[in-house]
């Protein structure tokens, strides 16, 4: 299943509570639209979206289940528990994406425990990491592939506006498992550069599936530009919502 992603574009179709797109049927329509445009796989958050999209498209589904109440630079919030990972499997995901860092988890289990439980169900695991050290530990724990998703979203990793392509290069050089480029990829040129650096596949989310974020970029240069809200300019907005619709997905 991981090999099926090779060279393809993965599109993340996610909308948080508070977004006008936060509706299962809307996510299904988004997923069908990106598949029509050539997405080789989709990345989805939450059992309801995963189950509905799985039934509506033919491409692989990478599933995760965030706990937004835990979101922050020092906390594990992307599929943080074994129970959530298994719920993602039950919803029909072909691959489970989960925080692959070594930080403590709310259920007191390790990432290796989560990988073992998901593997027991015959499903591969994509580890979302922020650093080379995270990635090496995730590989050691049994992850089937590793993504740069969390670079810029943890204490000690600089966010900025662009993707962390240097991390892609380093991971490709140091890991034996495949590397997925993910996080703040916003142009076809950046995606091409990620592939040139040897990633298995690239994930684009916000720049394809978040029209509020996209609109804010255009509105900002209009002569009657509105004063941007903090959510429209902060790369990931405040950890404690309320979610700004112009924020990244
Ligand atoms: C940090 C975090 O919570 N990342 C999430 C992981 O599922 C999503 O919110 C991102 O949209 C996804 O990683 C794609 O990235 P971008 O939207 O930048 O293309």
From TrEMBL:
UniProt-listed Enzyme Commission number(s): 5.1.3.9
Region (Disordered) location: 224-249
Broad EC category: isomerase
Segments of skewed composition (Low complexity): 224-235
Pathway annotation: Amino-sugar metabolism; N-acetylneuraminate degradation; D-fructose 6-phosphate from N-acetylneuraminate: step 3/5
Swiss-Prot/TrEMBL GO biological process terms: N-acetylmannosamine catabolic process; N-acetylneuraminate catabolic process
One Pfam family of this chain: NanE
One function term, GO molecular function aspect: N-acylglucosamine-6-phosphate 2-epimerase activity
PANTHER family recorded: N-ACETYLMANNOSAMINE-6-PHOSPHATE 2-EPIMERASE-RELATED (PTHR36204)
Function statement: Converts N-acetylmannosamine-6-phosphate (ManNAc-6-P) to N-acetylglucosamine-6-phosphate (GlcNAc-6-P).
Name used for this protein in its record: N-acylglucosamine-6-phosphate 2-epimerase
Originating species: Actinocatenispora rupis
Gene name of this polypeptide: nanE
